[in-house]
Amino acid sequence: MGFSGSGMRRRVLGAAVAAGAAAPLLLAAAPAASAGGAEGLRGCESSDFKLIYEGREAAAGTDYIRFAMQRVMGGGAGEEPCTIYAPLPMHWVDGPYGERVGDWGHYDSEPPEPFTVAPGGRADLVVRQPNPANYPEEECDPRPVSGIRLYLRFEDDPGVYGSTGGQDMMCAEPGRAVPTAIVTPHGG
């Protein structure tokens, strides 16, 4: 299922309002496939990818955590290219099948145009994470996390999990140390 139609927008926005805006405000409308994306290709789904932790750098109180979004090969749809429509929702989790810790991630202010990922190809994900130690402990409520969960569809999507090795602590308190997810074509 791709991202399209005003009915989808109403369901997504209605669900966010019903949930007390606990989920991120998702795309108001999915852009038409252009630039690196091809019309007629299906939208990528979480099951199309495996997240592979590649490392991190830190600067000015922020970690830049890199993941490869490796396209998983498979039968049927897995043998065809698919299109990524960024930005994508993400959050920290306390285990591979665990609960969300802290807020949903923000999106980069200028997401890339939709782009196509071939079978066996990849995209790049960077999570820009303010250091939770920048906040007083009572305002942060630090909790251990094992990685992130990224979603490539709005509905009925279990997301794809990416481990960071389970050595991170993130703020559970809303509005503190909120991450930003940036998804781009590989090498882009």
- Give me the secondary-structure category: mainly beta
Which strand order do you get reading across the main beta sheet?
1-2-8-11-6
Instruction: Compute the separation of the termini in Å.
Output: 26 Å
What is the oligomer described by this structure? single chain
Main beta sheet: 5 strands, mixed
Number of helices: 2
Question: Secondary-structure element sequence?
Answer: HEEEEEEEEHEEE
Name the helicity range: under 10%
- Which whole number gives the mean pLDDT? 79
Task: Name the overall outline.
Answer: elongated
Q: Which stretches are low in confidence, meaning pLDDT under 50 for 5 or more residues running?
A: 1-37
Please tell me how large the radius of gyration is: 16 Å
Share in β-strands = 35-45%
| Count of beta strands | 11
